[in-house]
Amino acid sequence: MNQQQSQKKNRKGERGSILAVASLSMLSLVLASGLAIDISHLYTAKAELQNAADAAALAGASQLSSTQGGIKQAVAEATKTLNKYNFGSNVTITSSNVTFASNLNGAYVSQAAAEASPASIRFVRVTLSPKPVGITFAALVLANPQNLNSQATAGLSVALSMNKFYTAYTFIESTSAPLVKGQTYTLVSKAGNDSSPSSYRVLSGPGGDKILTGTIHAYGYIGSSYSVANLASSEMCRYAKIGMNTRFGDYSVHPGANPTDHPPDTVTTENITYQQYENLQATSTASGMKNRRIMTLPIALNSTYNTGNRTVVANRLAAFFVKRKVGADCKLEVEYIDKPLAVPVGTYTPGQPQMTELSIPVLYK
Which of 240, 230, 265, 247 is nearest to 169 (CA)? Predict the structure, then answer.
């Protein structure tokens, strides 16, 4: 009898011990699950902050043009509200978060310092201030909230060996007097079978169709052969007006065009320099498309012009700023940009000829 009572008491004690162990195990499981959720939350918020910094740095680098206006545009693009973090909170980026350098690992300076000496600036660094992220279970062992920060550096790539989306023109230069960077040129229209230098041509597109405005969806290389449209000088001029003047908001020669499908540039002031244009772009609030007045296209020596099949060989691909509309005189006035310029798409292949004026924005770290 006593033995049976003793066994019953032991079983009750065992049941109590199991209940206590189970409760502790359940509490530990809940705490572990909560800790995992908090840590996952922190990792997610950190990744979103890093994405915001990466996007801001790339946006800034895409505006670099070795000009004061380019620095201003870089800050304007980098400080836009981009990504979200911590489940919807805005990432606020100010000009003080954006710094500039000539070398990837060089000294990074403020916007004011970069504007004072913009010619060599090739890199943008965005450093986000600490952002608070709340935690629950992990607050038992970590401070609440946790402050997270991030940093990203982007810049212009090495000179490209291929450029995509070039403008549908070629400029013909003299073998004895090639175009010089930084200078302004007034180019005249010539027929497709005329190899005269100091002139421009409209290129032919796939299947012989003339591409009159916008970009050619093809790859541009130094040394590549390009086909010139089989047009008289007057027709070259007419297509030049169609392709260029809409960029100034003039649709009189191209009545089928409209500002929505063929937007003007944000700056349509004529007879200004590229430097003035960049500065005006940095402060312009006009509707339109930035950099519509900048063209990247193949330049060819007149000695490489085959007048029989109307082909030219690109001496290089380079960037030009269009200074004014094409008028009744059919002249195309452009400034040869002598600064590193970011283009939307391009690649670099070791060993291939490089286009020293053209780069793409790259996220470095």
Answer: 240
The tens digit of pLDDT for each residue in 232-265 reads: 999 999 989 988 999 999 999 887 888 888 899 9
Q: Is residue 119 a contact partner of residue 16, using CB atoms and an 8 Å limit? A: no
Does 145 sit behind a cis peptide bond, omega within 30 degrees of 0 on the bond before it?
yes
- Asked if 279 and 184 touch (Cβ cutoff 8 Å), the reply is no
Q: Where are the alpha helices (DSSP H) in the chain?
A: 2-61, 68-78, 111-116, 233-245, 274-283
Residue written as tokens 């600064």? 339
- Round to whole Å and give the CA distance between 75 and 77: 5
Token pair 């003339």 is found at 210
State the average pLDDT for the chain: 84
Q: Give CA–CA dist 15/269, Å, rounded.
A: 89
Residue 88 has pLDDT above 60, yes or no: no
CA pair distance 223, 353, nearest whole angstrom: 9
Report whether 82 contacts 55 (CB < 8 A).
yes
β 184-189/199-202 pair status: parallel
Distance, in Å, from the CA atom of 66 to the CA atom of 340, rounded to the nearest integer, reads 7
pLDDT band at 201 (very low <50, low <70, confident <90, very high): very high
Tokens describing residue 272? 């200004």
For residue 273, the one-letter residue type is T
Residue 231: exposed, middle, or buried by beta-carbon count in 10 A (0-12, 13-18, 19+)?
buried
- Claim: this prediction has a pTM higher than 0.85: no
- Token pair belonging to 360: 């793409």
Q: Which two tokens stand for residue 271?
A: 């007879």
Q: What is the per-residue pLDDT for 285?
A: 87
Provide the residue count of the chain: 365
Among residues 58, 64, 49, 53, the alpha carbon closest in space to that of 154 is found at: 58
Q: Which of 173, 186, 167 is closest to 244 using CA atoms?
A: 167
Tokens of 185: 């040129």
Pairing of strands 358-359, 341-342: parallel
- 318, 326, 331, 322: which is closest to 359 by C-alpha? 318
